[in-house]
Amino acid sequence: MKKIIVAIVISILTLPFLALAATPAPVPSPSYNFTKDSGLGVTAEKTGHKSNILFGDQAGQDPLEYGISVILTVVASFVAVFFLTMVILGGFTWVTAGGNEEQIKKGKNQILNAFIGFLITVGAYGISFAFVNINSIILMF
Description:
Shape: elongated
Number of domains: 1
Largest sheet: none
């Protein structure tokens, strides 16, 4: 029970970071333009993979960075729904155990594993979001 409470507290403390990472931060115009200077924008245009809808210039960001941010946000949303479903299923298993210790333990483990997976996913999302927006992070300091 103590592990579950600790996992819940940790997940509640990490939620503000997830909310801040959900919207791409506006990037000031850096001296290094990732799309132009790396050549990926030209390659995307030549191969037909550049789309104005997904990779359009938004809030002063490079198109490729914005597109990756959109993809990461959509994937993180689906993963959050998946983990919420896993917690609900674990809670249902626990509530319907009817005093069976094995079922109670199984439900608790499902909830705990869902929170651990969620924390790992939030950490990976934060690292990848920081990597995509490295220009704005460097320019802050």
